[in-house]
Each structure stands twice: as C-alpha cells, then as structure tokens.
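Batch manifest, entry 17 of 40.
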Amino acid sequence: MAEERLTELQAAILEIEALGLPRRDAMRLVTQRVGYFVGQARYAQELAKARKLLTSLPPDVAGGGEDALVRSLEQRPRIPRSATHQIGSTGG
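Output type: structure tokens
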C-alpha cells in the first residue's frame, strides 16, 4: 500500500483547527485556503481522517502528532490559490 500522507484539505483543516476557532469560522478559512467550498459534513469527515492518519503513524516516524503534522506540511509543495470564488468578486 502506498504511503499515506495528508491531503491539502486535511492539512489546511488541521492548521486551522490548531487556532481553536469556532467551527463556522474554521470552515470559512479552510474554504478560502483550498479554493473550493468545504461544507460541515466534509470538514468533519476530513478532520476525522486526518486525525486518524496522524495517530496511525509509527512513533519513530511521527515523533508525536504535532511534529508529524509539521513534517507533513513542510514536505508538501505550496500551491498559490486565488480567492476568485467569493461572491461579489470582480477579479481585479
């Protein structure tokens, strides 16, 4: 089986969750970060998957949940996204 890694959506959700914001605000920030709408159900599903993935990593690889998250995020290439999906956006 291929090595499992956090998806861009899962990483964004975990980063925003670390801020301790209310769920509604967190969903809005994640939607802006990934560039497409993330609803309540999808947010909850992806958060559960990401947490399960972090807890399933072996201790020698993970070195703890937060360290594993940081390493996983550092290994991902950063993809610039624009927020043109916002209502009322004129694009310029």
